[in-house]
Write a structure and sequence with these properties.
This protein is an all-alpha fold. 66% of the residues lie in helices and 0% in strands. It is globular, with a radius of gyration of 25 Å.
């Protein structure tokens, strides 16, 4: 039998860093290779069983266990819908996509979802189009708001966040090891903030999956050789995600640059070229919807145009009170007077007027608005906005459970801060992910906050916490090992 080839010492900067990092999965792989006699690298740990004794969980991952975890996550989501009494029942709240999807089926056009009746069938760009098309497709096959259609859409939401569990495992494992992957995946599978919106016909669950998919693809591209086709493809993916929800767009420049700069040997020319190609893929993807909006409304708008109304909800006189009062006072679906104003003026003029009023209110009381932004930042990071919402709003059945969610989110945030401060040097490679979470929260801090706005970042927070936890546990081994 032919002897296995002996691997030479690669001599690259990346290889040297892997050798020096005692917690690197590449180092563990090389230790295995040394024990098998395949590599002669003498800089590795002398004990070939270090891999098994000090890191017992860092073994080849069983696909069956991962599949079992995903099935468990799916079961948790279905049971949560059943326990809330909403399984197969069209929701009474957050009906914007229900209206938009049903009218797309019946009239062939995406109209304003805030109008109760089919009395004004003008085109709308209030909502991103992707989930509206999904809802319309299911309704066209199974009937509008039938039990079968609602079950199918809820099942799709459950599958999306269950698949996100697998993506989270892959991201955390690539950033650290399998232990971090399991910790992050289990937490996402059982996190009520992630699966709590399965029952709603809203884009939250699909957006959670989309954010995880972007990060998973980003890490794979960052560790592969530069290829112009991959860069354009990544831009196309970013454009598709923007059609699901454009909220992540604010973090696109940072994510693209981090992907291109992760390898230190990439030149400035390569970074500029890669950024240009990714931007081109993104622009080509969002161009059709942008041109459609320009054709109907005479102006360019990125995916959706309701930011003026959202900004007003965060600057109106009722902004100091609970969200239910804000919606009751100004949101057309909850206020008959605003419904009549919307019917009279039309969607675009309505949004522009509220945007103008929001800017005026901010200029007149800039200090008060900054105070509101600070309060919203605290609400976003601690979940306290949920603890004082009226019973029945937001999908949680009891005040006690809402209070538990508030405590849970607060502990998450506190643990992430403490862990990153403890590993402020060793965990520097996580700051790109932390920055993405922080940047994502800016839009909601400046405008309007609800707990479901935090849900897409929960998997990212789980990844950070898992990696930090494993790094902290490994520090004694790194300090005592030869």
């Amino acid at each position: 039998m032919r002897a296995p080839p002996v691997l030479s010492n690669w001599g690259s900067v990346r290889h040297e860093k892997c050798i020096a990092d005692r917690s690197s999965p590449v180092r563990f792989f090389l230790i295995r290779m040394q024990a098998a006699g395949v590599t002669s690298d003498t800089r590795l740990l002398p004990d070939p069983h270090f891999y098994d004794t000090k890191f017992p969980m860092e073994r080849p991952t069983s696909p069956r266990l991962l599949l079992l975890l995903a099935i468990l996550a799916l079961a948790v989501r279905i049971v949560s819908c059943w326990a809330s009494g909403s399984l197969g029942r069209s929701p009474d709240i957050y009906r914007e996509y229900v209206h938009s999807g049903s009218r797309l089926v019946s009239h062939g056009v995406i109209t304003c979802p805030l109008i109760h009746e089919d009395v004004r069938l003008e085109p709308s760009n209030m909502l991103p189009p992707a989930y509206t098309v999904v809802v319309a497709g299911v309704y066209s096959l199974l009937g509008v708001e039938t039990i079968a259609a609602t079950l199918a859409l809820q099942f799709l939401n459950a599958v999306a966040t269950s698949v996100a569990v697998l993506l989270v495992f892959g991201i955390a494992r690539r950033l650290c090891d399998s232990r971090a992957g399991w910790l992050a995946a289990i937490w996402v599978a059982l996190n009520p903030v992630v699966f709590g919106y399965t029952r709603l016909l809203w884009d939250t669950s699909i957006f959670i999956f989309s954010v995880c998919l972007v990060l998973w693809v980003l890490l794979r591209l960052a560790d592969r050789p530069y290829d112009w086709k991959r860069q354009i493809g990544f831009g196309v993916l970013l454009g598709v995600v923007a059609h699901v929800n454009p909220a992540l767009t604010i973090a696109y420049p940072f994510l693209v640059l981090w992907m291109l700069m992760r390898k230190g040997n990439r030149s400035a020319t390569m970074i500029v070229r890669g950024t240009a190609l990714t931007t081109m893929g993104w622009l080509v993807t969002v161009a059709p919807w942008t041109m459609r909006n320009y054709h109907h409304f005479g102006e360019l708008s990125y995916i959706r145009s309701s930011f003026g109304l959202v900004l007003w909800l965060g600057a109106c006189p009722e902004a100091h009170s609970i969200p239910a009062e804000v919606y009751a006072a100004w949101y057309p679906m909850h206020n008959e007077q605003q419904q009549r104003v919307l019917l009279k003026t039309g969607e675009q003029a309505y949004f522009k007027e509220w945007g103008r009023m929001a800017k005026t209110a901010i200029r007149n009381d800039f200090g008060g608005w900054l105070k509101l932004c600070g309060t919203r930042a605290v609400d976003y990071w601690t979940g306290s906005i949920f603890s004082h919402a009226i019973p029945g709003n937001g999908g949680w059945p009891t005040n006690a459970l809402r209070a538990c969610i508030t405590v849970l989110i607060s502990l998450e945030t506190l643990a992430m801060i403490i862990g990153l401060l403890y590993l402020r040097h060793f965990g520097a490679h996580l700051w790109w992910l932390v920055a993405t979470i922080l940047v994502f929260s800016i839009v909601y801090t400046l405008s309007h906050v609800q707990l479901r706005y935090r849900a897409p970042t929960e998997p990212l927070i789980a990844i950070v916490l898992a990696v930090v936890s494993v790094r902290i546990l490994d520090r004694p081994f790194q300090q005592t090992s030869p």
